[in-house]
Amino acid sequence: MLGNCSLEALRKRTSYKWRTYPPDVLPAFVAEMDFDLAAPIVAAATAALAIGDCGYGHKGELGEAFAAFAAKRLRWSPDPARVYAIPDVMTAIAEVIQAVTPPGSGIVINPPVYQPFFYRIRLAGRRVVEAPLRRDSDGRYDLDPEALDRALADSDVRAYLLCSPHNPTGRVWSRQQLLTAADICQRRGAFLLVDEIHAPLVLAGAEQVPFLSLNHEISERTVSFTSASKAWNIPGLKCGAAIAGLMALSRTT
User: Fold this and answer.
1) pLDDT tens sequence across 57-80
2) What is the dihedral sign for C-alpha 231, 79, 164, 132?
3) Its pTM surpasses 0.70
4) Would 173 be classed as within a structural domain?
């Protein structure tokens, strides 16, 4: 099912993973899988190249396609009109941060977390505010509501960037955990950005709850981000989706 990629074949790839280090190094520093692409992806890309379909991108039926996927995989029915095409999740997060927060404001994140959160927030002219995860009774990483509330209490802190499912700990946040975070953000008047790029990779036994499916009041100040890049190993194709609530939609356009 995952193909038959030999090391020899993998070394012919020209991606960042396979061109950064010399041939005697086996790279494992970036989230790129050593699998064959799924046949439907190969067919779609080949068909597009065959007709020279390499111009500037158009949203096309992305909204409808994503809504259909979300309904089938995530039991969520987002409005296709609120789905926006993005080149990748981190670029879109940085753009939205700049659109909805003033320069120099604080953005809360939950370390240990995806390392690019730190430098992309700073690159956007904002400062990182940490609300570290805590350990639960089983030794697993968990959201810390008290730490989140303290971080958002600062008047200069304007947004919370939540990673759901969490990277790198692998935690899939429960509905109640998300509602608790939503309540805190609503009370503190924070804007919420939710990185859900790993949602399609959630394993059996865990339930991925798309944040915007909660229909919480904070959804009006929430944008969720996702992409096929992680689950289908196609970051080089540069296509993701941002899904906005009503107020968020009006503020970021």
Assistant:
1) 899 999 999 999 999 999 999 999
2) positive
3) yes
4) yes
Please report, for the domain that includes residue 136, its CATH number: 3.40.640.10
Report yes or no on 11 lying in a domain: no
Q: How far is CA 126 from the centre of its chain?
A: 19
User: pLDDT tens-digit profile of 188-234?
Assistant: 999 999 999 999 999 999 999 999 999 999 999 999 999 999 999 99
Residue 6 lies in a domain: no
Cα dihedral 192, 197, 199, 202 sign: negative
The count of residues in the chain is 253
What are all long-range contacts of 127-136, with beta carbons under 8 Å and residues at least 24 apart?
Answer: 129/154, 129/157, 133/166, 133/169, 133/171
**Full DSSP string of 52-90:** T--SS---TTHHHHHHHHIIIIIS----GGGEEEES-HH
Helices (H), 101-174: 116-123, 145-153
Rounded distance between C-alpha atoms, residue 76 and residue 69, angstroms = 9
